[in-house]
């Protein structure tokens, strides 16, 4: 299956549970809103990429009710949930589309929350976004960096080594772009006045299965899943618990990157 369709399927299956478990994504969205507080009020046309269940879309409408918004997502079920969240709104156009291939129209602000880490062609996509912005337009996004889930990655590798497994698939976060990667790509795309910020966040869960269940409930799981044995799963839990449990909970790291770039 195409990786984009796998991503779409993962999130679509969890449309009903996403909002209950997406605390970090909401924090990322609020940080994004803080960074566009100067650009947002004067934007007349907005494009939101990966609108999901509409949390950021709702914030955008509340802070600029006069703007026309095109909100797109890969999956129709998520679009429908976002539409229900906002209710009837003639200034919002909902579109089922891939944010990496959509470049129609001219926008004052292109914005996206917790989506860019899933892009397969970020260099070309940023160039397309640059072309879709009007003069003085702005691209703003939040994304996750490769330190995300570093405890899981370390435990996964230790568990595989303990069982003497020769080949174990990497967790997707290891392939996420760094802040420096994004800075370079934005520069290559033609953007100026690039502002980047990074923050390491730490969530806590009662146990490793609780964390994995919450992750599954958001749909943010491996788009190329591979079956693994109960022995490996048990070794993963044992390693994670032994190395990282403190004060009755296990930590989960998120590396959040925010970007603001002007044309």
Describe the structure.
- Strands 3-2-1-4-5-7-6 form a seven-stranded mixed β-sheet, sandwiched between helices.
- 41% of the residues lie in helices and 24% in strands.
- It has a domain at 3-147 and 175-202 and 252-262: 3-Layer(aba) Sandwich (Rossmann fold).
- Helix 3 runs parallel beside helix 4 (55-63), helix 6 (122-132) crosses helix 8 and helix 7 (150-162) packs across helix 10 (230-244).
- Helix 4 links the parallel strand 1 (45-49) and strand 2.
- The chain is α/β, with parallel strands linked by helices.
- The protein is built from ten helices and seven strands.
- Mean pLDDT is 87; it is low at 10-19 and 219-225.
What is the count of helical runs? Answer: 10
Helical content (DSSP H or I, runs of 4+): 40-55%
Q: What portion of the residues fall into strands of 2 or more residues?
A: 15-25%
What gyration radius follows from the Cα positions, in whole Å? 19 Å
Find the CATH topology of the domain at 3-147 and 175-202 and 252-262. Answer: Rossmann fold
The largest sheet, given as strand count, sense and whether it forms a barrel, is: 7 strands, mixed
**Straight-line distance between termini:** 36 Å
Reading side by side through the largest sheet, how are the strands ordered? Answer: 3-2-1-4-5-7-6
Number of β-strand runs: 7
Low-pLDDT residue spans: 10-19, 219-225
| CATH level 4 superfamily of the domain at 3-147 and 175-202 and 252-262 | Vaccinia Virus protein VP39
CATH architecture of the domain at 3-147 and 175-202 and 252-262: 3-Layer(aba) Sandwich
Provide the CATH top-level class of the domain at 3-147 and 175-202 and 252-262. Answer: Alpha Beta
Look at the helices and sheets and give the structural class: alpha/beta
Shape: elongated
What is the H-and-E element order? HHHEHEHEEHEHHEHHE
Average of pLDDT: 87
């Amino acid at each position: 299956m195409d990786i984009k369709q796998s991503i779409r399927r993962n999130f679509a299956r969890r449309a009903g549970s996403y909002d209950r478990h997406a605390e970090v994504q909401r924090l990322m969205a609020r940080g994004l809103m803080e960074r566009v507080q100067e650009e947002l009020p004067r934007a007349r046309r907005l494009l939101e990429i990966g609108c999901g269940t509409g949390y950021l879309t709702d914030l955008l409408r509340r802070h600029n009710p006069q703007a026309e918004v095109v909100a797109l997502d890969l999956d129709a079920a998520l679009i429908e949930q976002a539409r229900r969240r906002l209710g009837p709104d003639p200034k919002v156009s909902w579109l089922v589309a891939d944010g990496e291939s959509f470049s129609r129209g001219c926008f004052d602000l292109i914005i996206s929350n917790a989506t860019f880490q899933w892009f397969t062609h970020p260099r070309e996509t940023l160039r397309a976004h640059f072309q879709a912005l009007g003069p003085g337009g702005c691209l703003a996004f939040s994304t996750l960096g490769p330190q995300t889930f570093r405890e899981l990655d370390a435990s996964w590798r230790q568990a595989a080594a303990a069982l003497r497994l020769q080949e174990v698939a990497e967790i997707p976060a290891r392939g996420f772009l760094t802040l420096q990667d994004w800075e370079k790509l934005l520069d290559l795309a033609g953007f100026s006045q690039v502002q980047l910020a990074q923050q390491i966040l730490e969530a806590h869960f009662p146990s490793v299965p609780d964390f994995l269940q919450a992750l599954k409930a958001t749909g943010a799981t491996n788009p190329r899943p591979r079956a693994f044995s109960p022995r490996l799963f048990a070794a993963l839990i044992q390693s994670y618990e032994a190395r990282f449990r403190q004060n009755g909970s296990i930590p989960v790291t998120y590396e959040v990157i925010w970007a603001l770039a002007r044309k």
